[in-house]
Every structure is written in structure tokens, then in C-alpha cells.
Design brief:
- It is a single chain.
- By secondary structure, the chain is of the alpha+beta class.
- It has one domain.
- About 20% of the residues lie in helices and about 45% in strands.
- The radius of gyration is 13 Å and the shape is globular.
Length: about 100
């Protein structure tokens, strides 16, 4: 049986704005991701929310895995590729053992 993990936002690493064609800019933050008090990944959240845009987190086998928000129609796949390209080096630096 699959148990859903409940990640929490940790310390903010950086912030910025993203603009999509014809859409208003949305502020985002790059944050640590905490599970059971332990740093397990890094993610990009929309500022002021707990809505995760993209993340790289460690799985049960100790490997980094990508999470993408596929429910946000205003978040194109190309943007998630860019986000993940930014997150992987942070994950390697902060989380990977």
C-alpha cells in the first residue's frame, strides 16, 4: 500500500518571478523540503502558498526523484524542465549524501 508523504516547506533558499506568455508574473520561492524534521529535498513553491511547482526529493532508496505539478494548466512542461534544471544542483549540494 502506497503511503502519501507529507512534505513541509523549510528555509527559503531564493525567490524570483516567472512569466508565461500572456499571463501575469507569479512570484515563487525556492525552498528546502522537510519530511519528519529532516531535509529531504528542494522545491519551487508559488509564493504565499504551499503549492509545489517542482521539486527534487530523496526517495526511500536514497535516490533523487523529480516531482512536477501536472495539475497547473498555467505551468508548461518546458517551465518545469527549467525549474528542475535549477533544482538538481541545489539538491546535489544540500541533500545528496
Amino acid at each position: 500500500m502506497f503511503m502519501e508523504r507529507h512534505y513541509n516547506k523549510g528555509n527559503t533558499i531564493s525567490s524570483g518571478h516567472s512569466t508565461h506568455k500572456g499571463k501575469a508574473a507569479r512570484k515563487y520561492i525556492v525552498s528546502e523540503i522537510i519530511l519528519n524534521g529532516e531535509l529531504v529535498g528542494v522545491g519551487i513553491y508559488y509564493d504565499g502558498t504551499d503549492e509545489l511547482r517542482a521539486a527534487v526529493v530523496v526517495n526511500d532508496q536514497g535516490q533523487g526523484v523529480e516531482i512536477r505539478n501536472l495539475h497547473d494548466e498555467h505551468y508548461p512542461e518546458a517551465q518545469s524542465d527549467d525549474d528542475l534544471a535549477e533544482l538538481w544542483p541545489l539538491y546535489e549540494k544540500l541533500v545528496a549524501k
